[in-house]
Amino acid sequence: MMIIIATLILGVLFGASLLIPRARKPGTAEVVKSIPKVPQLYTHAEVSLHNKRTDCWVIIKDKVFDVTSYVEEHPGGDAILDHAGDDSTEGFYGPQHGTRVFDMIDDFYIGDLQQ
């Protein structure tokens, strides 16, 4: 009976040792969690190709945003498509937008407009 109990305890301890992460030794390489991206540069001609409901990019203050995934959710309906593939700065900063849009637009940022 003691052998069975000892075997069970050792099995549990061994299983736990496999599941618990081990501390890293000093000097070992660590996994890079995130590498800051260098902004991609796009020409106005490149952006202009993305002018459809299923492929919609806009320019706001010389920054390029891929808003394709947001087109169907846009509270203003198809108004977002009025400047698809073009500069939407004026419309974006219009009185119809609350401050919430200024927080959420960064999620769609893909690069900068090449001057």
Automatic annotation (TrEMBL):
Keywords: Heme, Iron, Metal-binding, Signal. It holds the Pfam family Cyt-b5. One of its GO terms (molecular function) is metal ion binding. Residues 1-17 form the signal peptide. The lineage of its organism: Eukaryota, Viridiplantae, Streptophyta, Embryophyta, Tracheophyta. Gene3D superfamilies: Cytochrome b5-like heme/steroid binding domain. The keyword Cell membrane does not apply. This is Cytochrome b5-like heme/steroid binding domain.
